[in-house]
Amino acid sequence: HTLPAAPAAVAVSGVVKVATVTGATVSGWVGKDVGALFTAAGVVQRKYLQITIRLVPNTKNTSTPTLTDWRQSYSCPPQE
């Protein structure tokens, strides 16, 4: 998928917004139950998960965000 440029909202079928992080650097773990978000959006389970992160500069375009770390956790239900 091609996502629209910020600040336009992302309204693409199969793309689920998980979170928006703004402000000071977040150094601790910020977790979301993406499974519940996918279910609510009607996205069916698949074998692979594609992650898209949209990095948006500040309003004056003088500072750009940097992704320095990523952690994805998952669990496999007993019936799988």
How would you characterize the overall build of this protein?
The chain has 1 helix and no strands. The chain is mostly loops and 80 residues long. It is globular. The chain starts with 33 loop residues before the first helix and ends in a 40-residue tail after the last helix. The mean pLDDT is 78.
Radius of gyration: 15 Å
- The average pLDDT is 78
What would you call the shape? globular
Main β sheet profile: none
Number of helices: 1
**Percentage of helical residues?**
under 10%
Number of strands: 0
Structural class: little secondary structure
Helix/strand order, N-terminal first: H
Distance between the termini: 29 Å
Fraction of residues in β-strands: under 5%
Q: Unreliable segments (pLDDT under 50, ≥5 consecutive)?
A: none
Task: Lay out the secondary structure.
Elements (H helix, E strand, L loop, with lengths): L33 H7 L40
Top keywords for this entry?
single chain; little secondary structure; 1 helix; 9% helix; 80 residues
Structure summary:
9% of the residues lie in helices and 0% in strands. It has one helix spanning 34-40. It is built from one helix and no strands.
